[in-house]
Inverse folding.
């Protein structure tokens, strides 16, 4: 008996071990740079089941510990392997409010998949792709049931900002019976998911569907509401809100302060991406907001934002797009998948290079960029080698568009209007890490406003922790 | 949705709108603006809040038809609604009793200068105002400005009404007559504000201008509205829109405001091709 039981899974396991990681089919690179449709098509049911079968159903699954919201990965993957897709979706929804989003944009290679046992020898289980499949399946089959909402506790919470942090906090709070209103500065919800990450990587209809789900759970939205201008945080308390969560992100673009940065044709990545994604400039003149369509585009930076900007520009410009990054390829913070996609699409890279100035014509339009080669010094405190310009190595290349994607700071509107919310030297709101509590009573914060530019899933984790602590705060009554 | 409760055509291409926007009406201060988006396809454009009535919950905007969005706005009537209005944005005007203030409005710039003039008058200043337009038919807010000014001068470029010439000439006269002036507020076309600043710089008169760069979000998120002031990069939507005029790099801003010249023309051609109204119904 005993032998049978142990033998069967073993035999099973070796069969499972033989299945190679299943890739998602994708749009052909030459085709996709002519459109803004999503690049991977996603798994078919067969591919998803096959990939799910690769999971070894570990007793002590390290993948779960690698996921910031601790999705029960072996459980949902097993349900996929058995073809129980809806049940799998339910399992994920217990801990993750935005599975279709995370399945697409999470840094799986650094989180869940990094710790997958199958990655030790060979390739990790494609957890992200499976999560995406399950969420898409559920949405496309329609009829996503909402969880039971308890009777109203009598408490109201204001959530400021509708990015992943705010959405998650709101969802968790309504599930606990509190009334929640999200105040959003823009005319649509979603934060970076709507204005930053491009359509071809995260279709906006998916973000909208996830937000619809929240609305059905009873979350209310107020758009065009800039907190700090229209209402201050104190106004919200005066209006009868019992607690406030701030998830306003890191939306203040950094410029490099080099000559020529205000020439026509030099954009911050925020502006470029907002014009294209939020305002749909890629469909100008059907949509009214324009964006310049250059012949030669330079993108400065090496993170996800730079890569998103470069791939967007590739779809809009007439000749070529070059990413200029001051460190080496290995040090690029962007996701490998995105670098691969960008390369397939013909985006060029200049490593160990940085801009020194931009040159314009008589009308103040950008025509050329001057770049300089960088050399890496010894490692600094952060362990990264610091790039220093190599004297005399300047050279010029033609460019009529430059997109500066070197990071964001914190938008100061809220701290300026509520000086009792303490911020650090860089403007980030200071919180108690385990509770997300700020220095102001009843005010919690999370996501990029606390962390600086981080990730979707970390912002969601903060939102979740804040919701838990807001609930404690509201039910505790001693505050 | 923000309902238009009143519309008045002030001049050939200039209209006043009163919108239902109670929250904004109760918060706004002189010098602040809103951004609006007419419909799903629309661009977000900034307009100054000219006046507000917290009791009635309305704000007043005055818009000059320049391109597609303002032309479509101009075609809307009482009862129609605007999809999105966000505000109040920007820093309020710094108002105090300076002594004597000169308030200059050129063209549509008279709309944003009016609430500032009223606020300065309220704060006890002696207010000398100068408003000007290309021609008589384009002149706006003459009576309103007169009510909040100790003295009002009116100019037209073509001489069709009152003083023949530019607003700067009146300012020059005031300076030559040794009028005591403590501060100058000037709002209008960039070239006019530049001319005013060139004049007041020579005489050491502090001058505040309100800048109108191209904006996208109006909350400091994109940097589209950046202007060089005193050698530093400023975001007009959050650091302004008012700045010390003597420090503004007007030439750069004039070039930046021409960024989308081609695209704007194309949008306008498309609008006239579709005869306007079709566009709102999409
Ligand atoms: C181009 C780009 C690509 C990225 N790609 C990835 C990726 O692939 N994977 C990943 O994990 N992460 C990625 N990130 C990072 C990720 O998007 C962010 O870490 C995440 O969105 C932060 O979430 P948040 O909720 O803190 O804030 P945000 O998403 O920034 O949302 C903040 C919201 O608050 C609103 N707001 C701001 N101020 C106010 C105010 N005063 N009043 C009311 N509302 C206000 C804003 O309009 C916005 O809607 C990317 C970021 C960018 C810019
Ligand atoms: C803070 C602020 C307050 C403003 N207040 C008012 C106001 O009270 N009343 C009013 O009529 N206008 C005001 N403007 C200007 C107004 O926003 C523009 O006229 C409008 O955006 C033009 O949009 P459009 O689509 O109709 O024209 P477009 O097709 O975009 O442009 C048509 C013409 O207008 C010029 N233009 C484009 N954007 C601007 C701009 N931001 N400022 C000036 N010219 C521009 C273009 O160069 C072009 O020649 C303000 C601008 C700012 C930044
Ligand atoms: S949420 Fe992100 S980290 Fe967690 S399982 Fe999904 S893809 Fe992995
Ligand atoms: S570590 Fe990998 S193999 Fe093990 S349960 Fe997680 S996904 Fe499956
Ligand atoms: S309009 Fe975007 S930062 Fe000012």
């Amino acid at each position: 008996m005993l032998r049978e039981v142990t033998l069967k899974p073993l035999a099973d396991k070796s069969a499972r071990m033989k299945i190679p990681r299943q890739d998602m089919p994708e749009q052909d690179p030459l085709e996709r740079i002519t459109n803004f449709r999503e690049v991977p098509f996603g798994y078919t049911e067969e591919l998803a089941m096959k990939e799910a079968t690769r999971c070894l159903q570990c007793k002590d699954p390290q993948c779960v510990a690698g996921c910031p919201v601790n999705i029960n990965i072996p459980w949902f993957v097993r349900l996929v392997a058995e073809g129980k897709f809806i049940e799998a979706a339910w399992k994920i929804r217990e801990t993750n409010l935005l599975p279709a989003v995370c399945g697409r944009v999470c840094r799986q290679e650094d989180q869940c998949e990094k710790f997958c046992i199958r990655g030790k020898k060979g390739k990790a289980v494609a957890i992200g792709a499976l999560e995406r499949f399950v969420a898409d399946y559920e949405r496309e089959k329609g009829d996503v049931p909402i969880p039971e909402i308890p009777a109203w506790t009598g408490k109201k919470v204001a959530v400021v900002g509708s990015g992943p942090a705010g959405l998650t906090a709101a969802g968790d709070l309504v599930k606990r019976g509190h009334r929640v209103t999200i105040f959003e500065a823009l005319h649509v919800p979603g934060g970076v998911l709507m204005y930053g990450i491009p359509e071809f990587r995260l279709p906006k209809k998916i973000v909208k569907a996830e937000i619809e789900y929240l609305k059905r759970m009873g979350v209310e939205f107020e758009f065009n509401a800039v907190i700090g201008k229209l209402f201050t945080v104190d106004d919200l308390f005066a209006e009868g809100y019992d607690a406030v969560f701030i998830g306003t992100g890191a939306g203040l673009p950094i410029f490099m302060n080099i000559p020529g940065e205000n020439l026509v044709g030099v954009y911050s990545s925020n502006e470029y991406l907002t014009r294209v994604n939020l305002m749909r400039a890629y469909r100008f003149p059907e949509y009214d907001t324009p964006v310049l369509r250059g012949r030669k585009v330079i993108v400065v930076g090496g993170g996800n934002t730079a890569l998103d900007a470069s791939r967007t520009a590739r779809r809009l410009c007439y000749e070529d797009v070059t990413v200029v990054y001051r460190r080496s390829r290995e040090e690029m913070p962007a996701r490998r998948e995105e670098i691969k996609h960008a390369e397939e699409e013909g985006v060029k890279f200049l490593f160990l290079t940085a801009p020194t100035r931009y040159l314009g014509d008589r009308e103040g339009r950008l025509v050329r960029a001057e770049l300089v080669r960088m050399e890496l010094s010894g490692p600094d405190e952060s362990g990264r080698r610091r790039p220093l310009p190599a004297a005399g190595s300047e050279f010029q290349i033609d460019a009529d568009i430059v997109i500066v994607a070197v990071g964001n700071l914190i938008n100061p509107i809220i701290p300026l209007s509520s000086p009792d919310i303490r911020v650090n030297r860089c403007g980030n709101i200071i919180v108690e890490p385990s509770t997300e509590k700020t220095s102001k009573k009843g005010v919690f914060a999370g996501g990029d406003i606390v962390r600086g530019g981080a990730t979707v899933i970390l912002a969601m984790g903060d939102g979740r922790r804040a919701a838990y602590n807001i609930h404690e705060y509201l039910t505790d009554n001693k505050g | 949705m923000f309902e238009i409760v009143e519309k008045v055509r002030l001049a050939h291409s200039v209209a006043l709108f009163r919108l239902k926007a109670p929250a904004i009406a109760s918060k706004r201060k002189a010098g602040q603006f809103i951004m609006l988006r007419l419909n799903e396809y629309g661009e977000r454009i900034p307009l100054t809040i000219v006046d507000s009535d917290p009791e009635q919950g309305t704000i007043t905007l005055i818009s000059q038809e320049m391109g597609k969005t303002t032309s479509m706005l101009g075609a809307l009537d009482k009862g129609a609604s605007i999809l999105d209005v966000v505000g109040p944005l920007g820093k309020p005007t710094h108002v105090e009793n300076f002594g004597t203030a000169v308030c200059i409005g050129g063209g549509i710039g008279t709309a944003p200068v009016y609430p500032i003039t009223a606020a300065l008058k309220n704060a006890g200043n002696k207010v000398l105002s100068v408003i000007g337009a290309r021609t008589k038919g384009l002149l706006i807010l003459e009576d309103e400005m007169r009510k909040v000014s100790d003295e009002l001068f009116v100019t037209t470029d073509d001489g069709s009404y009152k003083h023949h010439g530019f607003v700067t000439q009146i300012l020059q006269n005031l300076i030559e007559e040794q009028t005591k002036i403590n501060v100058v507020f000037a709002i209008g076309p960039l070239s006019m504000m530049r001319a005013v600043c060139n004049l007041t710089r020579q005489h050491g008169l502090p001058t505040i201008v309100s800048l109108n760069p191209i904006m996208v979000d109006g909350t400091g998120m994109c940097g589209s509205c950046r202007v060089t002031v005193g050698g530093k990069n400023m975001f007009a939507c959050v650091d302004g829109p008012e700045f010390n005029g003597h420090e503004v790099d007007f030439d750069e801003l004039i070039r930046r405001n021409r960024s989308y010249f081609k695209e704007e023309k194309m949008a306008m051609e498309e609008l006239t091709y579709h005869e306007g109204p079709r566009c709102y119904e999409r």
Summary: The interface with chain B takes residues 185-187, 223-226, 229-231, 251-253, 255, 257, 261-262, 264-265, 267-268, 270-271, 274-275, 279-280, 284-290, 292, 363-365, 411-413 of chain A (CB under 8 Å). Confidence is low (pLDDT under 50) at residues 1-11 of chain A.
